[in-house]
Amino acid sequence: METRDLDYLLAVQEHGGIGKAAEALGMSQPALTKALRRVEEQAGLPLFERTVNGVTPTPAGTLFLARARRIALEYDDVLKEMEALRSGEQGLLRIGYSPTVPGSLVLGACQQLMTERPAAKLRLRRRLARDLGALLFAGELDLIVAPQLDSADGSCEFVELFHDSLVVLADEGHRLHRKRGLTLADLAEEQWLLPAPHIRIRQQVDEAFRQRGLAGPKLRVETDFGSHSLLHLLRGTTMLCVAGTESLGPLRGLRALRLGTEQLDLRRQVGMTYRAGAYLSPLAQRVIAVLRERMG
């Protein structure tokens, strides 16, 4: 088996069919089919099965592809490391950061890095933590600055920068600001602006309602992206949403409700995450150090 065989397998999985994968790889369909058969013969089990829509991995194929993806990433890492040793170039650093992380922290560190290393190049991605994690494990990012990922399999390393708590925001004229001893039940009849159900924050809010025997939040606006500009939708309305306290600075007219963590616990750890065992370039190591220095 050759390393390119792994690329062939992963391409077939990504495109869901041999024809589309062959086109993307720039090779003929018979050649790709032959390569897949060769790998399956070595594995001793079929790795894909045909469906009406193309091909899908078998149970054995799913396991094989997971290992193949890790091997491919490790191979790319060692090539990057060898290239850095050979050329002595600063190279490219790919950083992702979450909208709930203060942009001034990440961009300030990037500005310092570019001043220190004039030849360095950066590629920045701003996404929700879940999407950043997917890009990280796909090998498209070197490190991310975001709330800690839900990963208990040892596949990543986490370096904490700070811990804080998200809050429930409302227009400053909302009647709930005048209520004492606010509970989650008081929020049950309000309308909400929340992320999609697969986002961790939404899951935490839904679970808190469920534990208290309450129906889920009444959704008025649902989003699959994070941006402070969304908070403009709250002003002058009775809607509620969850956000970081840094959102209160640039957006006037919004205040955090006085809701205790015993009602809704949105405390979190925020830091830098990178793949366990991955090659960390000198640039990556330096930006990690700069971020830690800036947090004191």
Automatic annotation (TrEMBL):
Keywords, sorted A to Z: DNA-binding, Transcription, Transcription regulation
Pfam families tied to this protein: HTH_1, LysR_substrate
A single MF term (Gene Ontology): DNA-binding transcription factor activity
InterPro entries with a match to the protein in the record: HTH-type_LysR_regulators (IPR050950), LysR_HTH_N (IPR000847), LysR_subst-bd (IPR005119), WH-like_DNA-bd_sf (IPR036388), WH_DNA-bd_sf (IPR036390)
Protein name: LysR family transcriptional regulator
One of the record's GO cellular component terms: cytosol
Lineage: Bacteria, Pseudomonadati, Pseudomonadota, Betaproteobacteria, Burkholderiales
Ranges where the HTH lysR-type domain occurs: 1-58
PROSITE patterns, per database record: HTH_LYSR (PS50931)
Family: Belongs to the LysR transcriptional regulatory family.
Organism, as annotated: Paraburkholderia pallida
Signal peptide extent: none
Top-level taxon of origin: Bacteria
